[in-house]
Amino acid sequence: MVEVTLWGSLGAIAGGKSKVEIEAKDIRELFRKLAEQYPGFEPYIDRGIAVAIDGVIYRDTWSKELPHGAEIFL
User: Looking at 1-74, which runs of residues are DSSP E strands?
Assistant: First the structure.
């Protein structure tokens, strides 16, 4: 399980939450599960949302593993 911090309008999509916990092993699974739980995320994912993991920004590296305890921001 990873904790994801949501910036700006992404929090509104998640019902006003600034953080969500998702069971995911990599960015691809994170995006899939976010879209399942919060359908409003799908357009952002399709446009190429960036993910910051421990301060490093990833755009097209969907296979990047999500380390346990990492700081993850969208």
Answer: 2-5, 19-22, 51-53, 56-58, 72-73
